[in-house]
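MODEL INPUT / OUTPUT PAIR
PAIR INDEX: 1
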Amino acid sequence: MGTTSGRWWWTLTGITLIVWALQISTGVSTLAWVSVFVVAFAALGLLTVVASLSRLRVSVAGSSGGVMRWWQASGRSMFAAIAPWVIAIAIVLAFVIWSFLQVRGDPSYSTDEVAFDQYAATLALHGSNPYTHSMEPAFAAYHLSPNGATFRLDGSTVTSLSYPALSFELYLPFLALGWTTQTAVALNVVSWAVAILLLFGMLPRHIRASALVLGSLSTFIGYAVGGITDALYVPFLLGAAYYLDRSLSQRGRASWISPVLFGVAMAIKQTPWLILPFVLIAVAGESRIRHGRWGFDAAARYLAIALGVFALPNLPYAVAAPRQWFDGVMTPFLSHTVPAGQGLIGLSLFVHIGGGSLFAYSLATLVVLVALAAVYAASYPLLSAWTFVIPSLALFFAARSFGSYLVMLTPIGFLAAARHFGSWDEDGPSQPAPTIKVWRSWPVVALASMLAVTAVVAFALTSTPPLDVTISSIRTTGQLATVERIGVTVRNQSDRPLTPAFTVETAGVISAFWRVLNRETPVQPGHVGHYTLLSPNVAAQPAVSGGFSVTAFTSGPDTVSSSDVFLPSTWHVALVPDAVSRPVPVGAPVTIRAEILDTLNRRVDVSQVPIYLGQVIYDQHGLINSSAVINGSVAGHTPVSAITNSKGVATFVIRGTQLANDPVYFEANLVNFSQFYPYGYSDILLIRIGSSS
């Protein structure tokens, strides 16, 4: 912890460890042993912060004590070597415990990729080719939410294995040993834990603590435990990046390490495929710098080794069923799946900018990737520090640009950049940087590439959505406070008949496709179609308390059109007081004020608005009708309405009519009088009718 930047990174690491202690403390109520780790991690985190901020120097003049001499001679260096790894292991252990608590709280698989991979491994273990079988049984086997599926533009579900063979073969040893419970999530978690430790060990000493902070970011740990299998290839790409320089400068077995590890990563998932062209350019370009000519032979050698390793686990399935294998591994590119993600496509999905051609986004991704490769090659080695992270820039323009595509390569890019600037200390280069000789015409290549990218992005964003989608009505589930039926009006603004398939978007997430109640007929150009949409499952139903929009997809041409955001409610009700802690004698009045509040909990001064107050008893055997009197109504009558005054407040007087073992629960709500759905439910107020003593 001796350098300035190192001290700050270790300070952040100590804070990170304290945060981990806070995060896992939520499990102490169900697992008492967790509290031991909470205390240990918090204490170690505080010690790390204190140590990183101190500059303690110990010297004892004339000391002849054996212990002190040992400490000065070797103890301090030993402590400096061991302590960082103790902290690193503590961070990883905290992550593993937190992951266990997450799985224990919700053991269902969250994504189809982990479910498919484990089911495919089960098939392979029993001698079946997963690429020739439907993965549909995985949904039930691993309790996958219907919204966790991958959908095509026509509303159908992808049920074929969509990844290279090593994505599921990694599971085989564990399944063969009889470990079948949460195998996929456990491998994800272990892979990310290994990645954190590898990055920690591979980074220069003065910044290696950054690996612990980076690896603990909520996005990465959420992906690891949430079923995003990118964590499986990250350790192998880290190794490939770390040993890449040996492929550039050496021959023999040492030069095989990087391409072998890269081939393994390629055999797990498709994302590393996009990095390969840049690695090959780096290998060839490094030869040009050192020997004055492009090393195409070295690049071909790297490519041959990587492809050979990729082929080893895939070859048996590719030979047995070549078409099914090819269709499977190419599914992410060729299956016309629905657009989604946090990249440029968000403008079409949520802001109605573009969407008339999803092909334009695919074209933009390809053009950006080729343009980046051209600029990278022409300016090499100017951008060599970006080698492993450049594909994330291209994936930003894809129709499916999930956050995992945008961030999972950053740890590898961070390591590659650190290796590239390996001679730097915390204050800058420790020696003069070598002169970089680049092709003098590379600015022309960069300009041409920028113009090509601008043109294709403009094409994607100016392609008008073909459908004008309007939400005309909704039907809710009442106290469940979700929307289960939606009326939609669609105007076809294109020059061809279109048959849309519909989903609902809420909080940036697209649900499973909704069923069309009336007959699905094409909407002719210039005509209007009216559709009634039924929710396919509870998970697909948007909450009444939040906004949502309806998204319409068409296939052939591939397009997306969205409605404006529909807000079922902007008001809600609050009950004052929000708790009645003492039992209320029979017949004694309890006055409750129901206030209308806006989304920021500011009271809305609106009069003559009816507020409805309902009552019920929640017994362990079911619901029981209660017998309280509200505003002088008949005993047990529910709901009872009251009109707001000029301050937006309605008053209810409640009297209990009989002693009861169970408390009475009261809840207030508003009603939309144009479409007659309830909304704006208050928190539930408990009143216990009994003796005051």
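PAIR INDEX: 2
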Amino acid sequence: MISSSRVGGAVLVVVLGALSMDGGPARSQPGSAQGSGSGSAPAAGSNGEIELDEDDVGTTAGSGNILIAPPDPSLRLAWLKDKVAAAITARPKLATARITYAVIDLSTGKELVSREPERPMNLASNAKLLTSTAALSALGAGFRWRTAVYAAVPDETGTVAGDLHLRGRGDPVLSVEHLDQLAADVAARGITNVEGRLVIDTSYFDNVTEPPHFDEQPKERAAFRAPIASFAVNRSQYTVTVMAEPGGAARVTLDPDVGDYMKIVKDEVTSVMKGRSRLRLEHKTKPTGVELEITGQIRTGEGSWDLRRRVDDPTRFAAEAFKHALAKHGVKLRKTSIGFGPVPPTAKLVAAHDSPPLTDVIRWMNKHSDNNIAETVLKTIGAETKPTPGPAKWSDGIAAMRAQLAKLGLQGTYRSDNGSGLYAATEVSAKQMLTLLAAAHRDYRIGPDLVASLPIGGLDGTLARRWHGKPALGRVRAKTGTLDKVTTLAGYVGVDSGHVLAFAIFVNDIPPGQRPLVKAMADEMVDALAAFLDAR
């Protein structure tokens, strides 16, 4: 439960213990160690919305009665239509919600059931299906992002007469561990002193770090709204972990370690045996860096809490992390200020780090509904396909995505203004989504990797807790989407015979407090689809 939120001094007060967005251990980030926290605190913005997609685990379905569809083909489709319709009518509290859906048989292209399939809807994080498909089409499954370091050839003493240059190319999963290895590689080349400073080449993207529609919640500091840059690290976010300890003490740690640029200057947290956990995190940006103040209390029985927050200046954050890594490996910069500019044509490649392939990146993105990765991927599509030279803009990414989706048959009027689906960025119909899912499934260059990136019902990602003990368990590959008044689910249902259905269920204007009902409704619909296939 959120008790208050204020930005100016960038203060966030969180009441913990009553709500855990994922109800389990904090997840690890690409290229970093698994977190040890027992929960992560959500944060509300100025308009009261909470973006839950990163931890949209849903509810665990009980064992209940197993659905069995009629074996008679003449009765089976009517049974399916009745079950899908009943999932809605059984929930009168959703009467004012806008509910659309459509299901097609991918072997025949035939529509099986639908309700207002051409009505434009807010997709929430279902928009990541558009981003993923466009990226696989435009970039190819093996695409990698490269971060590289350049310098003049050092003299016999290991001194570089000039600057050390780093070119960022938008790696969305670059970690501090990767930067540490880059720094180690620089030192291994015999460089010990740099007469100049660290200069960052950010020409891959422009300097507009906020994706479209992110300004709808300008005071939100939660990590789901992290900014985008051509050189960024740790997905432009940091984590303050508070661990309860016996005797009233509490241990507070900060990850990642970026040296003196970001540090905890005030730590006044105690452990209590009774009462709720209440933590106050204040973020203050100074010319010399970022100062964090954490106060409050944590209940001993809760173990630990992770408070994940966005950084305001992603390039400075990443550059300071690299400077810190260079110092650890004995590479001294004579000038401590950070510069910006292109890599000189005379500079030589010193070290480089290549990201995992696109297939691995979109798998993380979709399994965990990561907004920062999605927006970086969108801008990368623009950077790699734009017809004119220069840094990629958000408009380049959006135009490139639309061009790729048009090749796959996504036509007509629709709107998808960013890569993550956050805020009021999308208007896409269930029919249009099924057109895309069917086209991707037919294209062997896209389909296998797209399907592999999706959460598996009851097993992993944002669908890990759904359909337990039900026919759909393990047979659903789908993308979730959740905003304050939006819940969406779209993907594929398949059975052992190889028969596959594509489905899209979009619900907008959900009445307050009724999101659990919507998820239960969608689960029943998908369970009926699995039972329908089982009876074939």
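PAIR 2 NOTE: Residues 1-63 have pLDDT under 50 and may be disordered.
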